[in-house]
């Protein structure tokens, strides 16, 4: 990968403009945060060949080896309130999932809120962070990590991680996939921002593998067991617990087990 192959024939309007390609970095999310402070515009994107301290959700590390994955982050400066952030997160997950499905013909689905999975293994993770100023969103930083041509994972994650190569048996062109993904993300995010009441949730539900599953939700040391029955218009996962009550789960600090 290089900057030219990643950016030539990029069809987006704002995402990936400007685009920076860095051989090695700690975390592309951290880099975007710094660029945001320097005043870089909405759409600024950083792609790295490898990350030395890739960040996952809930303070975890994200394995980001050289040459096999797509590790990138972009900056959004939307005019929305902090409670609309969940919609952006879902829109990004939906865009990534659709692009992977179209590009590879594989049955990728979404594990709520926005892991992309194949079967019961994780293909892609998305980390959304934001900064606020007097209760308004200043910057949204979205980081996407996709296992593309990975042949083998470290033992600790081997049972729950997969790559496009492992699923299709074919090497995938990372730059072409990247451009398709960026375009789909832009389309869904733009659609959501233009019509926050719109039903990207309906599209999302069609691809959400969590629905119908028995799940265990962990928040801190609290555990909730139930069946995932729907997604609310605000992007919450709705669970029916063992006594039949409906509980709304906000994606913030939870892990949902039921798929892996
Ligand atoms: C998750 O835990 O599922 C989220 C993983 C997000 C990983 C990506 S890789 C590019 C970007 N930079 C980071 O440090 N993390 C995200």
Question: Main attributes?
Answer:
260 residues; five-stranded antiparallel β-sheet; 7 helices; globular; binds biotin
Show the helix and strand layout.
Elements: H1 3-7, E1 19-25, H2 28-37, E2 45-51, E3 69-76, H3 85-104, E4 109-111, E5 115-118, E6 121-133, E7 136-147, H4 155-158, H5 164-168, H6 174-194, H7 200-206, E8 214-219, E9 222-231, E10 237-241, E11 246-249, E12 254-257
Parallel strand pairs: 1-2
Antiparallel strand pairs: 2-3, 3-7, 4-5, 5-6, 6-7, 8-9, 8-12, 9-10, 10-11
Helix pairs in contact: 3-6, 3-7
The structure holds biotin.
How would you portray this structure in words?
This protein has 260 residues and is an alpha+beta fold. It contains 7 helices and 12 strands. It has helices at 3-7, 28-37, 85-104, 155-158, 164-168, 174-194, 200-206; strands spanning 19-25, 45-51, 69-76, 109-111, 115-118, 121-133, 136-147, 214-219, 222-231, 237-241, 246-249, 254-257. The strands form 2 sheets. It has a 7-stranded mixed β-sheet with strand order 1-2-3-7-6-5-4, sandwiched between helices. A 5-stranded antiparallel β-sheet has the order 11-10-9-8-12, with no helix packed on it. Helix 3 packs antiparallel against helix 6 (174-194) and helix 3 crosses helix 7. The mean pLDDT is 93. Residues 27-29, 51, 54-57, 60, 62, 64, 71-73, 115, 125-127, 143-145 line the site of biotin.
């Amino acid at each position: 990968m290089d900057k030219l192959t990643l950016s030539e024939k990029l069809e987006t309007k704002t995402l990936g403009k400007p685009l920076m390609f860095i051989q090695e970095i700690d975390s592309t999310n951290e880099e975007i945060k710094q660029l945001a402070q320097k005043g870089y515009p909405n759409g600024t994107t950083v792609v790295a060949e490898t990350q030395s301290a890739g960040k996952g959700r809930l303070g975890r590390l994200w394995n980001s080896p050289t040459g096999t994955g797509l590790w990138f982050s972009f900056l959004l400066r939307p005019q929305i309130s902090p409670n609309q952030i969940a919609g952006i997160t879902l829109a990004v997950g939906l865009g990534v999932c659709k692009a992977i499905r179209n590009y590879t013909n594989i049955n990728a689905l979404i594990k709520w809120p926005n892991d992309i999975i194949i079967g019961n293994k994780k293909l892609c993770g998305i980390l959304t962070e934001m900064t606020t100023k007097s209760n308004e969103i200043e910057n949204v930083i979205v980081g996407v990590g996709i296992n593309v041509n990975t042949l083998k994972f470290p033992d600790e994650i081997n049972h729950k991680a997969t790559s496009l190569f492992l699923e299709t048996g074919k090497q995938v062109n990372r730059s072409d996939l990247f451009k398709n993904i960026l375009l789909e993300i832009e389309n869904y995010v733009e659609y959501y921002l233009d019509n926050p009441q719109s039903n990207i949730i309906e599209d999302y539900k069609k691809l959400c593998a969590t629905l119908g599953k028995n799940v265990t939700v962990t928040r801190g040391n609290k555990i909730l067991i139930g069946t995932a029955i729907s997604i609310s218009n605000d992007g919450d996962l709705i669970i029916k617990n063992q006594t039949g009550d409906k509980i709304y789960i906000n994606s913030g600090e939870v892990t949902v087990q039921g798929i892996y």
